Amino acid sequence: MKKLVNGVILLLLSLSTISVATTKVEALSSSQGAVLSTPETNSEFGHVLYFPNSESSKINRYSLNRARKFYSSDLKATWTTLIPQEQEGAQKIEMNSFKMTLSYNGTMATKQDFLNHGIAFHFYITKDGTNFTEMTDLMVPQEGYYQIPGEFVGYRYEMIKTDPTAAIEDTFQVEANCLVDVDLTKITQDQFAGQAGLENWLDSKSPNGQPTSNYQNIFAIQPTISGQVNYQQLAAETDSPVWDSSNAIEGITVDLLEDTPTGERIAASTATDAQGTFTFSALSGKNFSITDTNNQLSVRVRPKSYKGWLVQEGTPTASKNLVVNVGRLSDIARQSGAYALAESKTNWLAPFDEVLEAGKNATNSKFILTDFETTPPTTEPSTTEPSTTEPSTTEPSTTEPSTTEPSTTEPSTTEPSTTEPSTTEPSTTEPGTTEPSTTEPSTTTSTTSKAVGIVTNKNDTNRTGGLGSNNSTNQRKLPATGSQQSFLFIGLGSLVMFIAASLLLFANHKKVD
């Protein structure tokens, strides 16, 4: 009796495992899933956040359709995905972004492979959500996938048996990826402000079934970044301002900075109004656009000639650089609290699943300007730095090259003496390096004198290396443009070269005798 009971239990367990396996319904019988995602969020039957402010915030739609075990009574399998007509034109598939991959029994395949195994594959697109046009013959084969050209709003697959009476055990799978464009001019004001989701996409949940809502709402999120700048006159430089005693100041420039992998860039600039406030917003302020939602943003106030103070937690702190980190767009949205509905069913992807506390500074940053300047002034880097190149541009425009060119042509006749004059050359370069340091104490002339020294060193090595006279004379002109030489120095140099040449000619003449 006990053995019989154990046998019954084992039988029930085996039947339960079979039933569990068949609940995946990967037969025809089918399995279908679709996911909408952006760089920030991922959602299957949930919400997706779309940030129009960022170039990287593209909505990607991924769908997977798998069919296996076609029975003799099954003629075809069809899946449909389209955008509903309640908001015509609000969403569409981005031009030439649709890519589709076919696989047979887990191996990459083609339309012909499907046909060779008894399945005719068909692909249709719709531009109005109702009427479908077959694009099977227009699918462009690429390396590992098919590309569907053009722009459309929805698509449909069909897998039809070539022999209606055949039973096919094989697995046929279709994966599709495309980018979704949202036309902000075709949606309501609440949707544009991120307070209401766009209409749901429709998907077929079973083969040959009509498409039904998948509850994948898309929310357009455009968070606001704002703050205030005040001014207070202090009686003494040692005094500290008080926010409640300060007054609004108008016309102060404020920048929105984006920290990119290649450096800092200004995403937008605005000025404080009569109330001292500044706002970066697509809805009610200066619109802004960034390159990537991964990048952190900062707010910078240009204090002109004033001394700057940051006000955090009610306490003003003197600051030379009035910059406040406000985090990423997703952090700003979550800290603002205005998008609670959109975030209620949102699955955050890494690294956006971790909230940066810097986002709380996006809407309550406060700054105070006072009379006393900071040391050094905070405006110097942005206003005076580019002008430092002007002195360097005026030096080459002097008449020195014309005075030194004759000195370069005279030694050209004595260039064959490459060994002996090279010992005297270093003595000629030393005065040239000391003169700029005595006559031009500025920082720019010191850099030019270093450049001159580098060129003259190259000249010396070229001469000792035995290069041709043309190369040596061309290189010799360069140091002459950046240094000042007296006529006495030129005369002495010419005399030394003349004596050296005479000695060389005398030695050669003696050798010939």
From TrEMBL:
Comp. bias intervals (Low complexity): 373-449
Keywords noted in UniProt: Cell wall, Membrane, Peptidoglycan-anchor, Secreted, Signal, Transmembrane, Transmembrane helix
Residue ranges of the TM segments: 487-507
Protein name per UniProt: Gram-positive cocci surface proteins LPxTG domain-containing protein
PROSITE patterns: GRAM_POS_ANCHORING
Residue ranges constituting the Gram-positive cocci surface proteins LPxTG domain according to the UniProt record: 478-513
Signal peptide (UniProt feature, chain positions): 1-21
Compositionally skewed regions (Polar residues) per UniProt: 456-478
Organism superkingdom: Bacteria
Renumbered residue ranges of the record's region Disordered: 370-478
PANTHER family on file: PTHR21523, SALIVARY GLUE PROTEIN SGS-3 (PTHR21523:SF47)
